[in-house]
Amino acid sequence: MGWFERTYNRIKRSKKKVDIPDGLWTKCIKCGEIIYNKKLEENLRVCPQCGYHFYIGARKRLEITLDKDSFREYDSVITSDNPLNFPHYEEKLEKSRKETGLDEAAIIGEGRIGGKSIVVGVTDYGFMRGSMASVVGERITEAVEKAIEKRYPLLIISGSGGGARMQEGMISLMQMAKTSAAIARLKRERLLYLSLLTHATMAGVMASFASQGDIILAEPGALLGFTGPRVIKQTIRQQLPPGFQSSEFLFKHGMIDLIVKRDEIRPTLIKILNLILPGF
Ligand SMILES: [Zn+2]
Asked: What is the CA(14)–ligand 1 centre distance, in A?
């Protein structure tokens, strides 16, 4: 048995989530398949074996969704403060900045999809788990206001497992009301709002702007909901139905409109925009 087979089999047998020499391979969280990283990137970070959708960062998300080189980021000088003097908040922010290359968990701007101009916002799960915070709420609100001002459709791609960011307390919570009020203004203006949910979209983000799209799309297998399944189970002391809070479960119960594989997202958005805004 050659070196490759021995290493491959050792990784495949391993129960550990990450045991990858030289950063060349990734072990699929769902099926255990060992995937060559280059192949994983080419496949838009979707497991070729089982279709598990791995996390991708906000900038990569914009790159694969928008027309090439069309994204123009809105300048934003606002940064997170530490209003509660929460211990180690600044260090956590700094760590996330280094890991993601972003200054906060949300990035906003405008670009084109299939030649149509659009305002776009993305929350990045990799930045403090995409948690709702003052800067996130402010930027999403700004994206909505820009869409109103320019009469462009709005696309928000959400990934948020962190809920309202506890380090900002009530200031973080009030962003739910602020972003929802902005979306309500957008709807009064009869502008299109497309919401794409990715793994995971939960809590404060899901309970505000992420679930308020005119058309709500989701990637397959994403965890979507408010409170996590473990907490619900402990609280109500009941078994939860199979697949509870997955994209497929929510689709079946009419909470989302479409489940779209990552490589089909861009063509699907183009199709939707062409259908709803043919002359735009
Ligand atoms: Zn897999």
From this structure: 15
